[in-house]
Amino acid sequence: MDLQVSVSTKTHTFYVKGMHCHSCIVLTEGEIGDLPYVTRAKTSLITETIEVTGDFPFSSLDEIAQELTKSIEKHGYSLSLEKEEAKRHWSDFTIAIPIALIFIVGFVLLQKMGIVNLVSSDKVTFGTAFIIGVVASLSTCLAVVGGLLLSLSANYAKSGDAMKPQLMFHAGRLISFFILGGAIGLLGSAFQLTPAMNIIISIIIAVVMFILGMNLLDVFPWAKRFQFSPPKALSEKAMKATSLTHTIAPFLVGVATFFLPCGFTQSMQIYTLSTGSFLNGALTMSAFALGTLPVLALMSFGSLTIQPGKASRIFFKSAGIVVIVFAIFNLINSLVAAGIMPPLFTL
């Protein structure tokens, strides 16, 4: 397990408990890599391990694991020398399924009222984007952006200035989703997407959401191998920015969240490309960002934190079920639009 790098520098590999998506790679590498005695940290989502190189001022591997854990336990992770047997917690579904069904029924009612539109049309309304944002904020967004918020809060709390940085963070997030969402929509217009290409995009969105949902259930380890993620360098820079104390740093961190590895954000970005319009793209991504705002605001100004446990597992499983249903609806809708199958839903 140990590799001697120099006289005083060693590399150790530890198992990471709490891994579920690509954001976990960014958070664990970022937090542990910033420790003064660590020179390199490399996390693997597939093996759920982290390889840490440094000059460790501790006498045993157990002590190293415990000290490294202190930097990431606020995000719900812990390190160990032995791989723990994965617990699937199937009993959580007895609560998660009813919660998901309530949400889905509510979504269908909104569909009938014309507020949202996902099942029977190839056009995602702003109401739909908002609700998808709400779902995101209760699952992957809570882990990805929430991790940045916790790091940002801890950094600025030292100087006694907590309110202004948080406001700037949320402002940066909302403004960037409007401008960059519009830019993606404008980019789509340059390509003059054909109906066939729009159908392909819809199918891609369905696949991304299905894989995301399977991972949220946390009972199918193999699903982690198929997750999509943006260039890692973008995510790493976003994480590094949380350690800055410059006045504009919180705003830039908010902007950087547009590029974080969140499956929901990626799905909406892919859809936005098909709008072929700056305004529609901007409003779609803005509606999505507004949907995530209530929960993230509670993290900033309330007592909501990321804590591992039964409640968080049920949250993730409920969101996973909802996302899988959304993905199936979207896939069926795409196949109907392509003329491959007849309509199954008349919602």
Can you give a write-up of this model?
It is built from twelve helices and five strands. Helix 1 crosses helix 2. Helix content is 61%, strand content 7%. It has helices at residues 22-33, 61-72, 93-113, 126-137, 140-157, 163-191, 195-217, 232-241, 249-256, 263-275, 278-301, 310-337, and strands at 3-4, 10-17, 38-44, 49-54, 78-80. Strands 1, 2, 3, 4 and 5 form a five-stranded antiparallel sheet that branches. The chain is an alpha+beta fold and 347 residues long.
For the termini, the CA-CA separation is: 56 Å
The number of helical runs is 12
Classification by helices and strands: alpha+beta
Report the order of strands and helices: EEHEEHEHHHHHHHHHH
Instruction: Point out poorly predicted stretches.
Output: 1-7
Averaged pLDDT: 77
Portion of residues in beta strands equals 5-15%
Biggest beta sheet attributes = 5 strands, antiparallel
Helix content: 55-70%
Q: Structurally, how many domains make up the residues?
A: 2
Radius of gyration: 21 Å
Strand elements, count: 5
Shape: globular
Short description:
61% of the residues lie in helices and 7% in strands. With 347 residues, it is of the alpha+beta class.
Q: Which terms would index this structure?
A:
disordered N terminus; single chain; 347 residues; 2 domains; five-stranded antiparallel β-sheet; globular; Alpha-Beta Plaits
